[in-house]
Amino acid sequence: MSDFVKDLMAELKAKNPAEPEFHQAVEEVVESLALVLERHPEYRAAKIIERIVEPERVIMFRVPWLDDQGEVQVNRGFRIEMNSAIGPYKGGLRFHPSVNLGILKFLAFEQVFKNSLTTLPMGGGKGGSDFDPKGKSDNEVMRFCQSFMSELFRHIGPNTDVPAGDIGVGGREIGFLFGQYKKLRNEFTGVLTGKGLNWGGSLIRPEATGYGAVYFAAEMLSTRNETLEGKTCLVSGSGNVAQYTVEKILDLGGKAVTLSDSSGYIYDEAGIDREKLEFVKELKNVRRGRIKEYAEEFKSAVYTPADPSLDYNPLWNHKADCAFPSATQNEINGKDAQNLLNNGVYVVSEGANMPTTLEGVKIFLDKGILYGPGKAANAGGVAVSGLEMSQNSLRLSWTREEVDNRLHHIMKSIHKTCVEHADRFGTPGNYVNGANIGGFLKVADAMLDQGLV
Ligand code: NDP
């Protein structure tokens, strides 16, 4: 670690205590950027790094709501407006009991670089609440969303800040949030993405993150003249990203053998085919059940409950070629990374945000596998959100093929940016450096152009 990185991290930790995920995300990026700063003293002089790690604005607010028993509940709401150098703040909302300021700052920070990589004009933001939608009735979720938007509406807008979904925020929640925004503002605008198709949503938005992560894996494989055909894939999670990752793996001839939720995981050696995937979609998106039911329905599968006493995740300990972590941050630690390598995995494409710890990342990089970090590999979701914004502005809807083609093209372009920047800065094949540097340069130059704001 260079002196500059050491000093910066010491100051960041002192100034932002108890935010370990934020420290982790920054450390990974600034280590890559040390290569850039040597060649570009102008970024050092303008203190671009010191500015980019400080959110432009942080909003925290009370979200009171009534549960079905008529009891008052209180949650905390957040929106981190991290960087608007290249466009309006853009990034999802996460509703999960683990949500806190540090987690949202890490996500907002990652989002700045990811959005820049998409080639579209979007700044970075992220928000959410420690509200847990699990086990809540539709009416409770609606009342919570309405209360959340009753504060958030004054801070966002189609040219200011455009939130979307993330963990715990899918089509149902976006609908309730949009309805409340429209009522309060008395205007129908593209202020949120991930909307329903009948009211301004884009085709392929639900599919985009998962499809994009698989397109990215296919691009990485193409550098070795290989394809996904016949490859065995480990997938974690069973929500939006995981479901469409499995769908695209099937489209490209691969075989997915695992899925999980926070209670445990299933291993289906026969492969998750289209019929089984439809079962998962119904289970998770309609009945809102647990992945355990998959193993009750399909006898080829084995269910293993989560065991918090283990220091590794057994999901990552099966023979495979590719891994698509699609649940949450830090789900692959050093031991998991080593287990993946021991089991033959040589392609990791991150659908989730920062699913691999710094130790795990180092193990992948040292081994020289095809490792696509989340800010590149999962950028397809926000890219199609950007396309949803364009369609809303034009008051037009593009066809499924048109949006999918654009998504595919964007994922290829992100891959190319990563490869070129990794090469240019002397670390060929290192997609971490490629993504961090490629995403950074555009934002840094825009910040220089716009002066000290
Ligand atoms: P969903 O809420 O649809 O699904 C999340 C899945 O991950 C669920 O199966 C959930 O299980 C599991 N999960 C969540 N938290 C934990 C945890 N702490 N431990 C174990 N399992 C957990 O979310 P998404 O699919 O939208 O998001 C998944 C990941 O992808 C996140 O990292 C998100 O930031 C990232 N991402 C999402 C994008 C999108 O477009 N949706 C875009 C880019 C990145 P359970 O139901 O039991 O909680």
Automatic annotation (TrEMBL):
GO terms for molecular function: glutamate dehydrogenase (NADP+) activity; nucleotide binding. Keywords: NAD, Nucleotide-binding, Oxidoreductase. Belongs to the Glu/Leu/Phe/Val dehydrogenases family. Substrate binds at residues 90, 111, 114, 165, 385. Transmembrane segments: none annotated. This is Glutamate dehydrogenase. GO terms for cellular component: cytosol. Homohexamer. The keyword Nucleotide-binding applies. GO terms for biological process: glutamate biosynthetic process. NAD(+) binds at residues 209, 240. SMART domains: ELFV_dehydrog. InterPro entries: Aminoacid_DH-like_N_sf (IPR046346), Glu/Leu/Phe/Val/Trp_DH (IPR006095), Glu/Leu/Phe/Val/Trp_DH_C (IPR006096), Glu/Leu/Phe/Val/Trp_DH_dimer (IPR006097), Glu/Leu/Phe/Val_DH_AS (IPR033524), Glu_DH (IPR014362), Glu_Leu_Phe_Val_DH (IPR050724), NAD(P)-bd_dom_sf (IPR036291).
